[in-house]
Amino acid sequence: MNPDGSCSHLYEIGNQDRNDVLKNYRKVMSWSMSEDMMIDVSIHNGSLTTFPSCGLCSRATVRPSVCLQCKMQLCRVSSTLTSPGNKRKRGQDCMRGHFRATGHSLAVDSATGSVWCHACQDWVYALAFEGALGRVRRLQEERLDPSVGENGHSKRVRYKNPKPTEMPFPANLGFAQIRCHCWYTYLPL
Q1: Adjacent-strand bridge partners of 115
Q2: CATH code for the structural domain at 8-80+88-144
């Protein structure tokens, strides 16, 4: 375990590969949060499908896991039933099979953003993934926000942290007469 809470397998890959893993993580999470996630062809292996399909068994899945090293979409749940058109064998787990065949170890759950390490058999809680997920969520919220203009720039004024000064606030600005007029409506009863 590393100081930031992640497993050692994230750091065993090189710096460039680690940057690619984070880039793939942001892409998968942007896709999963988008409104048109079911028809985005860039992550569906180039074909329009109703739901994304597993890269090994071609089974449609609502909640795919995506390998962060090669971006392959995989099934997470073992199959107990097979259909005639399904190439998947009874009890086959595509995600584990992919990890054994390729040596890859990191996958993201596209619905939650949680990262699974196959080598550790545990969920990875790295600060880098948490920060990337926060940025993706903020960008998606700004994209859907009606206060954002056509060019992508926010119409809102950016928050500036106030800097305290030694100058006292002018509290006594003088007396001003405040008039109050009350009008009551009387209804004849």
Answers
A1: 108, 124
A2: 3.30.40.10
Give per-residue pLDDT as tens, 129-178: 888 888 888 887 777 766 666 665 666 666 677 777 777 766 655 555 55
In the numeric block, the tokens 């375990």 are attached to 1
> Tokens 């860039």 map to which residue?
42
Quickly tell me which residue has 């399909």 as its tokens. Answer: 53
Helices of type H across 65-178: 94-102, 127-144
Reported in sequence order, the residue ranges of 110-182 that DSSP labels E, i.e. its strands, are: 115-117, 122-124
Domain residue ranges in the chain: 8-80+88-144
Q: Please, are residues 126 and 115 in contact by the beta-carbon 8 Å criterion?
A: yes
Q: Is the pTM of this model over 0.90?
A: no
Rounded to the nearest angstrom, the gap between the alpha carbon of residue 150 and the centroid of all alpha carbons in its chain is 23
According to DSSP, the residues that pair with 110 across neighbouring strands are: none
- Residues 35 and 169: their CA atoms lie apart, in Å, by 48
